Amino acid sequence: MDILWLWPILALIFALVLVYRGPRTRGVVIESVLLALLVVMVGLSSIWAFIGHAFMGERIAAYIGWPAGSPFQLEVAVANLSYGVLGILSWRFRGEFWTATILGFSIFYLGAAYIHIMDMFRGNYAPGNVGAPLYFDIILPVLLLGLLAAYKVVVKGESRV
Asked: Once rounded to an integer, what is the mean pLDDT over residues 112-134?
């Protein structure tokens, strides 16, 4: 479970490489950071979550503080796989594809955050319920939505020049 902190580090390194390789306009910097978050934090980390829920279900359930063996865990795995694929495809597809990917992912993660918080009020203080996953469930969608809005404003402004 400690691997959760690896994803933002990889995304930051990827973003720095992308920024270093191109012109350093505001639009390029925002686009590079957004692309890195989409590919790494949405794409690769969601595929990792799929692997965990699908193939290490008992271990992940215990980490979250939930009972193992529920078929819903496999459904969560497949949802993670779908967002993982969309995140990776963001490397190739841009524009409104990014908007759709970010909106769907954000709804899923913010919904998961709500469920974890409600479960916390019922007494579940397992690390996978109130620890790093909960922070990522809130911070990542807010960051993605903010960067997407900034990207759209900056790109629109740069296209007028």
From this structure: 95
